[in-house]
Amino acid sequence: MQALTITATMPHGVVSSRPWGVALDGLLSSVLWHRRKREARESNDYLIFQPDQVPEDLDLPLARCGDAETPDWHWMATFADRLPRFDEEIIDLRLQTAHTNRSRLQQLVPVIGTYAVSDRRGRYQRKYIPVLARPCSELTWNAVGDAELIRDLLQDLPAIGKHRGTGEGVVSQWTVTDAPDTPWWSAGHEHEPGILGRTAPLRCLQDVAELRTGPAGEAPIRPPYLHPASRTPSRHPAR
Fold first, then answer.
1. What is the mean pLDDT of residues 127-134?
2. How is the chain split into domains, by residue range?
3. How far apart are CA 213 and CA 152, in angstroms?
4. For the whole model, what pTM was predicted?
5. Longest CA–CA separation in the chain, Å
6. Residues 167, 184: Cα–Cα separation, whole Å
7. 199: pLDDT strictly greater than 90
8. What are the backbone angles phi and psi of residue 148, rounded to the nearest 5°?
9. Cβ-contact 193, 186 below 8 angstroms
C-alpha cells in the first residue's frame, strides 16, 4: 500500500447529481461487482439483489481508515476533484431527447396508429431531458492502495458519472502515479492540505486543527453509497 494520485482525462466534462465528485471507492466497487455478475452468468448463475439484506463490503485494493469491526470505518480514498477550478460553479446545460422505440412496440402489436403513439402529444410524446454537466479537463483522486490492482480495475471504466449511456463522462485516459511525499491520512481524506476531499466520520476530524469542510450530517461513508447501512455522523467534502 502506498499514497497515490489517480487522474482521469475528461474531454467532455462529467455529469454528477451531487455538488462534489464521484467517489473512487464507489468506482472500484462497481467494477468488482460487474465482474462478479459476469462470472456468475458464465457459470449459468445469477446474482439477485436482496433489498432486505446488508450489502457485502467488497475487498477493494485500498487501505482502510478505522477498525473494520466498527461501523464507521471507510476506505482511504477521496472523491473526485475537478480541474481546472473556477471561482464560481459553472454548469453546462445539455439537452437530451427521449422518444418511444417503435421497433420495440411492433413486437407487441403489428400496426401502430399515428394518433395512438404520437411524438408530439400524449404520454408517448418526445421528451427533452436537461442534463447538468460540469466542465472539466481532468478529475483527480487521492488514495492509499495498491497501484497495480487499481490500474487493472480502472481499465474497465471507459466512462463515469451519470448519463454514460448517452455519451457523457467519457474518460480518454487513466493515470495512477505514486505520491511518496503525501502523508497517508492526507491521501485518504484531503484534496490538498486543509481541504476535506471526502465524506468523513467525525472521529477522523477530531485531531485536525485547520480543515475546511462541507456541512455536517448523517451520510453513507463507503459503497454502496445509496444504501443506508453505513450512514454515520460525518462531514461532507469542502468541494
1. 85
2. 2-90+136-235, 92-129
3. 32
4. 0.84
5. 70
6. 35
7. yes
8. -65, -45
9. yes
